[in-house]
Amino acid sequence: MNLSTRSLRLAAVAVCAREGIDVAGLPAPELLDLSADVARLRRDADVLMAQVAAEIDRRSAGVGVGAGLASRQGFRTAGELVAQATGGTMAEAKRLMATGGLLVEVDDDAAREAALPEPSPLARFRVGLAAAVREGQIGIDAAALFTSALAVVPDSERTGRLFSKALAQAPGLPLVKVRRLVWQAQAFADPVAWGDREERQHEARSLIVRDDTDGMVTVTARLAPLAAAPVKAVLDAGLRWALKARRDDPSFDTRTPWQIKADILTDLCRHALDCTQVTSGVKTTVVVRMTLADLESGCGVGEIDGMAQPVTVGALRQAAADAEIIPVVLGGKSEVLDWGRARRLFTPVQRLALVERDGGCAWCNAPPSWCEAHHIRWWERDTGPTDLDNGVLMCARCHHRIHRDGWDIDIKDHDIRFIPPASIDPNRTPRIGGRQHYNLAA
After folding, report:
1. Residues in the chain, pLDDT under 70
2. How does pLDDT run across 238-255, given as a tens digit for each residue?
3. Strand duo 301-304 + 431-433: pairing
4. How far apart are CA 317 and CA 328, in angstroms?
5. Domain positions in the chain
């Protein structure tokens, strides 16, 4: 493929125009503009490096010692050669080669387009993915997530639609959120294969306890998502309780969040030694959700609150039999959710409905166990009702920032929009929030 440096040169010009500037003295808008320009320059450089890495990989594919380029340069693999050139890791080198391979593949397909039949759904998606990489909408790491998933999903129109929707939501998201979108697309595209994956994860579960040289003991556990959900829920609920008590009385607890979680784990194990002891009093539940049609058929994919990976409905049905796990079946009847001014605090049922709508913190997507239900129009100041349309699920940090900086929140038809103050955006352009921002199945 022909190397094009036009985008890189344009990005470099934008950055180099600020030669000698005092970054510490930049006003916030100019600093953000500089950040965007440098990020674009980095993404464009990564695209070129990906193309070079793919060619190194191609030339290193010879059979026998010394047959390939990497071997002749003294490396066992092309990845080692690329990693030395970039100063990065082998994992990064593999992502560069995979993305470069995608760009080469799409260009080669375009060159043969006249002789090819109608392209398959995944072939069309690969064209869009390559364009998103070249245009700087997503980075190399995000592209590698998509490329890896494409190797194990069926080439169908449904798969193409799911992955296209995930790609449309990916720009501007951190890698951990893009990974969640890709997992969801992969699970919905082939629930049967996703169920097989769950079986392999269950078989791969492990817990290792080892003594370190400094006398500490390290506990390492690998759990499947469904098994990890109650563990994570208990740890998050205990941490939230402790941090809330600290806000009320800063001298109450000086532990770090990591120390608090470690203490929760040891307290649980102490309790298991003698179940006549009272517990900490911190209660929590695990919420799983699925559609009514999937519940009845036993096929399909659902979600667990606070967990990034989707889970098959078969596994969710089994989990929902536990007393401390609440199944939310979408499309069924529910209790009264709107209480107006009759109640000051949101009820547990209303909170579950907010979790269903918002998916966690409506701003940062923190797990539901970290969040509280807050009035958009304040109870005291604005006489705001305790209704779902006046409620939003937010973690304490985001809630305080929204009020401190003067953001507005607008909810219509279950869609959440955060409206920035004029000091941040003179046009006050709404920003999408809630489940729709991070969740493919919203």
Report:
1. 1, 62-67, 108-117, 274-285, 317-344, 380-381, 440-442
2. 888 888 777 777 777 788
3. unpaired
4. 11
5. 6-193, 286-330, 348-438
Phi first, then psi, for residue 225 (nearest 5°) are -55, -45
Beta strands in 296-400 (DSSP E): 301-304, 311-312, 325-330, 371-375, 391-395
Nearest to 157 by CA among 165, 148, 149: 165
Alpha-carbon distances, residue 304 vs 301, 310, 355 (angstroms): 10, 7, 11
As a whole number of angstroms, the longest Cα–Cα distance in the chain is 80
Nearest to 369 by CA among 270, 237, 208, 186: 237
Which has the closest alpha carbon to 144: 103, 193, 95? 95
The whole-model pTM stands at: 0.73
User: Any idea what DSSP says for residue 345?
Assistant: S
Neighbour-count burial of 362, counting CB atoms closer than 10 A to its CB (0-12 exposed, 13-18 middle, 19+ buried): buried
**309 — phi, psi (to 5°)?**
-85, 135
| pLDDT tens, residue by residue, 308-335 | 788 888 777 666 555 455 666 554 444 4
| Helix/strand/coil for 350 | helix
Which of these, 72, 100, 73, lies nearest to 84 by C-alpha position?
Answer: 73
By C-alpha distance, which of 178, 233, 263 is closest to 438? 178
